[in-house]
Amino acid sequence: MSSNLRILVACKRVVDYAVKIRVNAAGSAVETANVKHSMNPFDEIGTEQAIQIKEALAKNKGNADVVVVSCGPAKAQETLRTALAMGADRAIHVESDEELQPLAVAKLLKAVVEKEKPDIVILGKQAIDDDSNQTGQMLAGLLNWPQATFASKVELAEKAMTVTREIDGGVETIKTPLPAILTTDLRLNVPRYASLPNIMKAKKKPLAKLTVAELGVDVKPRLETLKVAEPPKRQGGKLVESVDDLVDKLKNEAKVL
Ligand code: AMP
Asked: Rounded to whole angstroms, how far apart are CA atoms 222 and 219?
């Protein structure tokens, strides 16, 4: 196994998974004002994976430099501090108050990759706010790197990794040379909680700031959102007296039999 690696982990700040999402009054987006935000859950899994690789390498006197990166407004730094408290070594904040669509993020990450030269870039399979499932794939395309998406198991070897992928109705195992892109699926690991001493230590870890202009990336949105709507309200249920009654209603009222 390679004894020294650099791993870049993309972490997005999103509306917390436990918040009941509401559409804004204009019907143009999800309401984000005064709503709890946290790290995208698939990015917590990505950070955990990078730290587990670091811990495994440390047992053989190796090291992984775990660098976390987030693109977005100033508050993205809170997400980066969480990743540092989990065990990442340093953070990069690409500051932008503009809307950043997946292609824009992929281009920004490409510019960061060119500076940092990581062996592996880990992203979530999707961000739970826009559910795009695009950024990792686009980054692989822009870099012309191999990609292992929807990972549920990762094994590192010398300049290569073997990845088990979640696919429809089963799993697929692939081997890719490094450098490569990895996107995380839910079953890859269970992310750790940051302990209080580690949260304190994280405040002193390095957090570098970059601007979109410094990276020279055009982040102009390419997609226009026409409308955002909530799913139709569920109708109330009905109690039936017997199985015969149920069959009768399914046949004659719902007409599904
Ligand atoms: P998406 O393609 O939007 O579903 O996002 C997939 C993954 O790309 C996320 O899980 C993150 O790892 C990464 N990503 C997307 N947007 C950002 C962002 N603004 N900053 C950092 N990483 C991001």
From this structure: 9
